[in-house]
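quick one, 338 residues, struct below
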Amino acid sequence: MWAGADRRDGPVIAWQANLASGAFGASGTVVTMPLDDLPDWLPAWCLDHLGGEPAGVLFQLQQISMVFGLRLAGGRDVVVKARADDGRAVSCVAAQAALAERGFPCARPLTSVAGVGSLAVHAEEFRPGGEVLGGDSPDVAVRYAEVFARLMAELAGVTVAPPLPNPPWVRWDHTGSGVWPAIDFLDSRDQSAVPVYVVDTAERARGRLLAGGLPCVLGHADFEAQNLRWHGQQVWAVHDWDSLAWQPEAALAGAASGSFASAGPPTLAPIESSEAFLVAYQDIRGRLFTAVELEIAWAASVWMAAYNAREQAPHGDTPLPDDAFRTQAAERLRRAHA
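---
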């Protein structure tokens, strides 16, 4: 699931050691390819928007988006991203550009979003290097919370059109009739493979989230280990700005508190680590969540985990009885008052 082309963009940084072998990176399938295999539109687009045609391919990541690491004629390295144009890209790239301009550690967009047929395309700087910070202990959770709090504080000063529709894994506010947002590649699969407790958990968490009545803000909705790189104690890069969302701050923090440790297939952090994340986030932001906000945070953490479990199930990855989601769902729902 995570290494195919189903869900998330993931970072544009490929693992350099794996490029020659075409091995799997943390965010998807890394594929080396000759110039002749690039999409027909890409060389001319690079010439028009970046001033040079591709002279070499550093990597390609194929997921929902197509991500190309390219060396242009003249030696400049860039990343070009193309995804189906659903109206979100302009806001996401504008917000990313604003944060990069302020010195936040993320790749700086080099172009605005341009339409190529049904695709939304833009280029950004190549920002290689750094390591994934592994682990899901409370101490690690605090380090991630510090970055997330800084990120959310910076985004609070950015004004863009809401990047809607929200990414599906935080789209509990969809207007469909069922518990899940309409996602063709998931809806077409055998839903009987999804355990009943997953659906029940999602229904209860979604009900709490929809009853929250909290204002929405701009935030990062895929804040996972695989989307960050570190140099020692310092974060070097935050990736996957295509996954910005328009949801309540507490919900976004809650989702991040559950998913921060995911370095490959989605995982759910221990409850004590999610709690440490939320405590640190509030402390750094300088504002305690209300009782309702805390409930919404816990509801978001378990709804996102239920979405992940539903996504994995048709692939034969049905969660085992002792996995983190199944063992934690009841407590997370209790804290959500759901």
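Residues 15 and 256 are 24 Å apart (CA to CA).
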